[in-house]
Write a structure and sequence with these properties.
The chain is of the alpha/beta class. It is built from 15 helices and seven strands. It has a domain of 208 residues: 3-Layer(aba) Sandwich (Rossmann fold), CATH 3.40.50. β1, α4 and β2 form a beta-alpha-beta unit. α3 runs parallel beside α5 and α5 runs parallel beside α12. The chain is globular, with a radius of gyration of 24 Å.
Length: 336
């Protein structure tokens, strides 16, 4: 009887030790996995990450050099403005999917360690004033903002009763769930992303922030606005755009707005009501804030686009048009 009880006790202890060991292994693997995905993002994440990393590092650095022009906007501005064509100090901090949310905090951080630039060019696609498409998948996943910034964004969205970011915060998932990175790890091995990402990082460093996306010899595909059909601003994005402008003007920075051109095919399919409402929004912004709107919606030949949204062959001429408008320089632009 006593021997049987001792045997059962021993088996129970062995079972308990097994469960403890298994739990320790699971916790160890989890911690190692999360440490890897949070410290090796240049190895596993997609091509956009090195561009976001570069912009964050530039904004967070310190330099006594004053820029004549800083560009903040989305990927259309990233592709459409080439700083190295200017004979002045200019910098392109536009990013894939960037909205005025990221733009505001980007300028906040930039001004902490740099003299205020003389001019700021804002360039967001109209649809990036209506919706957020990569806030969780890029801004949060790429760890672009700090904790207080994220909390402020979420609190602002709740205060404005704006659901642009969704019903609930997803930040904890990207911080604690390895499953959010499994797809990235799988593609990283297949695509050797570490090599591509290093090359992309070096490209944006040497080009002062410029990067081409599509490199086709033209595109007849419809951009997001042509498919969206209706222009209606998000209260959250409008609030952050106004905060961005106010911040710049508080530092005596001249603010310009430039809408990157659409290809002709998208223009043909853009509802007149969309164009009218968007132009009315910019006119009101110009009147209320005193910014200078250089260009609203304009159209260029399909052959100048590398894909449905981004300039390729037309980027050089587009850059000259921006420089001429901002600095009133003698630059001939073949834009038509």
């Amino acid at each position: 009887m006593e021997v049987s009880q001792l045997s059962n006790t021993s088996e129970s202890q062995d079972h308990g030790l097994y469960l403890v060991g298994l739990l320790q292994c699971v916790v160890f693997v989890y911690l190692i996995t999360m440490l890897f995905v949070h410290t090796q993002k240049m190895v596993i994440l997609e091509r956009d990450y090195p561009m976001w990393l570069n912009a964050k590092r530039v904004a967070s650095s310190a330099s006594p050099s004053r820029q004549d022009l800083v560009v903040i906007g989305d990927s259309r501005a990233k592709a459409g403005y080439i700083p190295n064509l200017a004979d002045k100090k200019t910098l392109n901090l536009a990013l894939t999917g960037q909205s005025p949310i990221e733009g505001y905090y980007l300028l906040v951080n930039y001004l902490k360690g740099h003299p205020a630039p003389k001019n700021l060019l804002l360039s967001y696609a109209p649809y990036h004033l209506t919706m957020v498409d990569v806030f969780w998948e890029m801004s949060v996943k790429y760890d672009f903002l700090d904790y207080n910034d994220y909390r402020e964004v979420w609190e602002t969205s709740r205060r404005l009763e704006d659901k642009t970011l969704g019903e609930k915060s997803l930040r904890w998932q990207y911080f604690f769930l390895p499953s959010k990175y499994w797809g990235s790890v799988r593609h990283a091995v297949k695509e050797r992303r570490w090599k591509t990402n290093d090359e992309t990082y070096q490209t944006v460093v040497s080009s002062n922030g410029h990067f081409y996306y599509g490199k086709k010899s033209g595109s007849i595909d419809l951009n997001e606005e042509a498919e969206l059909k209706k222009f209606a601003t998000s209260r959250l994005l409008d609030a952050y755009l106004n905060m961005l402008i106010d911040l710049a003007q508080s530092r005596d920075i001249q603010v310009f707005w430039y809408t990157m051109p659409f290809n002709h095919e998208s223009c043909k399919n853009l509802p007149e009501s969309f164009n009218r409402d968007y132009e009315a929004y910019l006119s009101a912004l110009e009147s209320r804030k005193g910014i200078k709107v250089i260009q609203k919606i304009s159209c260029l030949p399909n052959t100048l686009f590398g894909d449905k949204s981004h300039l390729y062959l037309g980027a050089g001429a587009n850059t000259l048009a921006i420089l001429k408008a901002v600095f009133d320089v003698s630059a001939t632009s073949p834009l038509s």
